[in-house]
From TrEMBL:
Helix-turn-helix domain span: 8-56
GO molecular function: DNA binding
Lineage: Bacteria, Pseudomonadati, Planctomycetota, Planctomycetia, Pirellulales
InterPro entries, alphabetized: DNA-bd_dom_put_sf, HTH_17, SinI_DNA-bd
Protein name as catalogued: Helix-turn-helix domain protein
SUPFAM superfamilies with a match to the protein in the record: Putative DNA-binding domain (SSF46955)
Position of the signal peptide: none
Organism the protein comes from: Aeoliella mucimassa
Highest taxon in the source lineage: Bacteria
NCBIfam families reported in the protein's UniProt record: excise
Length: 63
């Protein structure tokens, strides 16, 4: 059986990757605009593969 390893980023790592502030990331997280997993009362982790996929240009998108 194959095991798929998932890499999760912290909020600061995600904010750095997206080139936004940690505060703006919290806003996007609360509104559901960024994929995240709640791991504690006020702590989230962000799936790196999904974030990178969302950064790819969409086919047919206008410039």
């Amino acid at each position: 059986m194959a095991t798929i390893a998932h890499e999760y980023l912290t909020a600061q790592e995600t904010a750095d990757l997206l080139r936004i502030s940690a505060r703006h990331l919290r806003t996007l997280t609360k509104s559901g605009k960024v994929p995240s997993i709640k791991v504690a009362e006020r702590s989230y982790r962000y799936p790196k593969a999904e974030l990178l996929e969302s950064l790819k240009p969409q086919r047919g998108a206008e410039s």
